[in-house]
TrEMBL record:
Taxonomic path: Bacteria, Bacillati, Actinomycetota, Actinomycetes, Pseudonocardiales
Superkingdom of the source species: Bacteria
PROSITE patterns named among the record's database cross-references: PROKAR_LIPOPROTEIN (PS51257)
Cross-referenced Gene3D superfamilies: Periplasmic binding protein-like II
Ranges for domain PBP: 34-254
Species this protein is from: Pseudonocardia aurantiaca
Keyword set, alphabetical order: Signal
Protein name, per record: Substrate-binding domain-containing protein
Signal peptide: 1-22
Length: 285
């Protein structure tokens, strides 16, 4: 059954890890990953593009012995991988889609991890005149002006938020001015900058990959961006490793990882890129 199969890439990754260990001629250290302790994390491009995973995952492997194969896609695609039993754990930021998915009964715990916010970006000249406006009014003015808006169009958490903002503004985006990349946040930022267009981004990816765009709208309650970790169970597929999902969820919500999250980006950007939230009430707009 499709729901019980891993992707070919994930299988090859596990096999390759075993081959490399065998060829090394010596046993791996106790805390190191092995073919039997390699998990698949399906997560969003924002955690990858911001550099957060590069900071977190080596520490997770060192402390737990679980190696990690990361699949960085939009939140909708990450959830679909979980639904098909092709991931052990998810780290995503599309709350409505997450809640609907967990209600299906194939996932384990869904735990609050962190938040940051979305920002509306555009050229510094701001041809639509949206700087400093409430986000709903800004979206309406962009549509009315016909200024280029570049959407990810990839069913990601960011794309879901963008669609909700258009809906709240009473706009159905269509026409030459509305362009979709079908790509991740970093690539979409580059396209928006090249076209002198507007786009919606999570703040972390924008700060880590500035591409000639300016923050024009920020701080609006409707721009909150919340991340959860979701454990997968064998209800999704026999290949799922529930113990791996539990290990990752326990680790990323524990004080040590939460401290790392709270410090990430501070030295380089003068501010943390994410706010740790484990154990706190759910952030609400």
């Amino acid at each position: 059954m499709l729901g019980q199969k891993r992707t070919l890439g994930s299988i090859l990754a596990v096999v390759l890890a075993g081959v490399l260990t065998a060829c090394g001629g010596s046993a791996p250290p106790a805390a190191g990953p092995s073919a039997e302790r390699s998990l698949i994390l399906a997560t969003t491009t924002s955690t990858q593009d911001s550099g957060l995973l590069d900071d977190l995952l080596p520490a997770f492997t060192q402390e737990t012995g679980w190696g990690v194969k990361t699949v960085a896609v939009g939140s909708g695609q990450a959830i679909e991988l979980g639904r098909r039993g092709e991931a052990d754990v998810l780290l995503v930021h599309s709350p409505a889609a997450e809640e609907a998915f967990v209600a299906e009964g194939t996932a384990g715990r869904r735990l609050l991890v962190m938040h940051n916010d979305f920002v509306l970006l555009g050229p510094d000249a701001d041809p639509a005149g949206v700087r400093g406006l409430p986000v709903g009014e800004a979206m309406s003015k962009i549509a009315a002006s016909g200024a280029v808006f570049v959407s990810r169009g990839d069913d990601s958490g960011t794309n879901a938020k963008e669609k909700a903002l258009w809906k709240d503004a009473g706009v159905t985006p269509a026409g030459d001015w509305y362009q979709q990349t079908g790509q991740g946040m970093g690539a979409t930022l580059r396209v928006a900058a090249e076209k002198g267009g507007y786009t919606l981004s999570d703040r972390a990816t924008y700060l880590s990959q500035p591409e000639g765009l300016s923050v024009l709208v920020e701080g609006d309650p409707g721009l909150l961006n919340v991340y959860h970790v979701i454990e997968m169970t064998k209800q999704a597929g026999e290949r799922v490793q529930p113990e791996a999902g539990v290990a990752f969820a326990d680790w990323i919500t524990a004080p040590g990882a939460q401290q790392r999250i709270g410090e990430f980006g501070r030295a380089e950007y003068g501010q943390p890129l994410f706010v740790p939230d484990a154990g706190k009430p759910e952030p609400v707009p």
